Amino acid sequence: MHADHRYIEALRRHSERDIREIYKQHSAQALRWVVARGGSPDDARDIFQEALMAVFEKAQQPDFVLTCPLGALLHVIWSRKWIDRLRQKGREAEVRNEEERRYNLEVAADVLTVAEEALAEQSRQERLARAFGQLSDLCRQLLTLLSNGTAAKEAAETLQMNSVDTLYRRKNACTERWRAIYNEP
What we know:
Helices cover 78% and strands 0% of the residues. By secondary structure, the protein is mostly helical. It folds into two domains: 5-125; 134-183.
């Protein structure tokens, strides 16, 4: 466990003071890095925010342990996110240069693995949220109530359903629909 793991604990606790400290320590570096590679200060702020959100998502996993400096992890994530953004903008020459720089860097395998897992988890969460948004209002309400720990009987009454059996049938249908939307290409 790295000494910077305290920031992971701070993210888990939603400690505003510690989150400000993360911004203070690392956002300027992201700004310089992105601007030096053709981005604007707004791009840099967006990329840093996305990187920090990816770390935040990873921090929500109870078994996640930071084994490298937080700055190194953030750097790997924001550099990959910037390359992805350049790719989206169609700047192939810049993408090739960034890819070459990225592969020439010697970064500890742990940092790369953690960053890739964080990006994959963030992507999965985004897909889940998009699929959830496509469900009907009733399905979203039902699944939200149940996931928040509302008792089935109370949820059925809130949603004006005849019985708990009806609620569970509807829940299964909603879950299946959510899964189908999520798995669509």
